[in-house]
Amino acid sequence: MKDTPLSNCERDFLLKAIEEKKRLDGRQTYDYRKMKITFGTDYGCCFVDLGKTRVMAQVSCELVAPKESRPNEGIMFFNIELSPMASPAFEQGRQSELSVKLNRQLERCLRNSKCIDTESLCVVSGEKVWQIRVDVHMLNHDGNLMDAASIAAITALCHFRRPDVGIQGDEVTVYSPEERDPIPLSIYHMPISVSFSFFQQGTYLLVDPCEREERVMDGLLMIAMNKHREICSIQSSGGIMLLKEQVMRCSKIASVKVSEITELLNKALENDKKARKEGGRCGFAESLPQERITALKMDETSVEMTDVREKANDIVQKADAPPQKVTSPMVPVPGVGQIGQGLQNTWGLEDDEDDEYDDEEAEECDSGEEQEKTITKMEEEQHQKEASRAGDVINISDSEEEEVVILLPETQDKTLKKTWTSSHQKGAAASKKRQKK
Fold first, then answer.
1. Using CA atoms, how far apart are residues 30 and 206, in angstroms rounded to an integer?
2. Do residues 188 and 195 lie in contact, with contact meaning Cβ atoms separated by under 8 Å?
3. How far is the C-alpha of 7 from the C-alpha of 15, rounded, in Å?
4. In the prediction, which pLDDT does 176 show?
5. Residues near 345 by Cβ (< 8 Å), separated by ≥ 6?
6. CB 437 within 8 A of CB 361
């Protein structure tokens, strides 16, 4: 399913607002959206909300054989899943261009920057190493997926704990969390990606673009940096040429944003660690008392019922007494009812119009009967004149095309009788209708 295209009016509105240094959600040019970091019940599960963009990262581990080129190092594997639940533009089971781009950028940001000590993941040199897999799922797409994915991935790696391993000869024993405490990963630094969008060939710059701003932008610059101001990766897309001053300006802004996000990330990890150590609720159970999942549950509001009777009596006493008698209906015309005073009644006017209409119909019926009577009288006179003539009347035309018509006295009498009876019946029917009305 393709995404809904952006209309020209909306595109012009967005660009005009950017020129006036205004954004749809009321942010300033260099402001990030509200960020929220939560953890799941198990170690290595992290949820990141960046505005309306929601991302989940899950870290898992497995003992595998190492690579031949690096027998003493563990393996890092990243996978980004663009679910159709996040956006109608994403398709299930197909790797789109956007997913490949995000996957490569995440690998450059985390694996190529050597933020994790892969040598500590080695169990037996050349035989057994830990393979760390990071699965990032997009739950809702509202722009800036790369920043949300990088924050979720590095937070999940910091939160993850791998099982402890014991080696006796050639045997490798993996202990459960009940037997031995799991071990955290060795992380050197935390690289975080910061995205910058450019408009009108680099004239205007925005930090953390939303989904609609990404549609109208000309270019995108992603800088991955840690809190020590070390650039881990940088990537430009969109076919826009950037100057050296613009890149340096973006790097300075990114250093400030990365320090703020890193502080928030460390604080979230400390709170979760403290809650787990004290045995408090964490993950899924933590959301239950805050009613973020049970949305239909509501607190009962207390209502005071002590002075209800006194208040009700006061209201009844202060209220006006109801009228004891109902006004009798006015009857201005026989057969017409009217309730209330000073109201205009249109029933009588309608009756007068109906009476006028009935009178007109009656006059038309009377005129029709008089015409029928005159026609019958003329027919009777013609019949008497024709009967006085002796013999049959034969009319023969000279032209061959016309038919020969023979009129006989008997047939003429029958036809005249039929016409007279039919006219008489019509007149009687009309009089009956008039009487009914």
1. 6
2. no
3. 13
4. 87
5. 332, 336, 338
6. yes
Q: Are strands 165-168 and 171-174 parallel, antiparallel or unpaired?
A: antiparallel
Residue 407: C-alpha distances to residues 238, 394, 399, 414 (Å)? 104, 6, 19, 12
Cα–Cα distance, 148 to 51 (Å, whole number): 10
pTM: 0.64
Q: For the chain, what's the residue count?
A: 437
In 3D space, the residue among 174, 191, 182 whose CA is nearest the CA of residue 228 turns out to be: 191
Crossing angle for the helix pair 97-110 and 145-159, nearest 10 degrees? Answer: 50
- What pLDDT does residue 411 have? 47
The CA R_g of the chain, rounded to the nearest whole Å, is: 48
Residues 131, 77 contacting (CB under 8 angstroms): yes
Positions of the chain with pLDDT under 50: 291, 293-295, 348, 350, 390-402, 411-412, 414-416
Q: How far apart are the first and last CA of the chain?
A: 69
Q: What pLDDT is recorded for position 284?
A: 55
Structure confidence at residue 317 (pLDDT): 84
- Hey, which residues does 229 pair with through a beta bridge? none
Question: Would you state the pLDDT for residue 283?
Answer: 62
Closest C-alpha to 209, from 224, 196, 225: 196
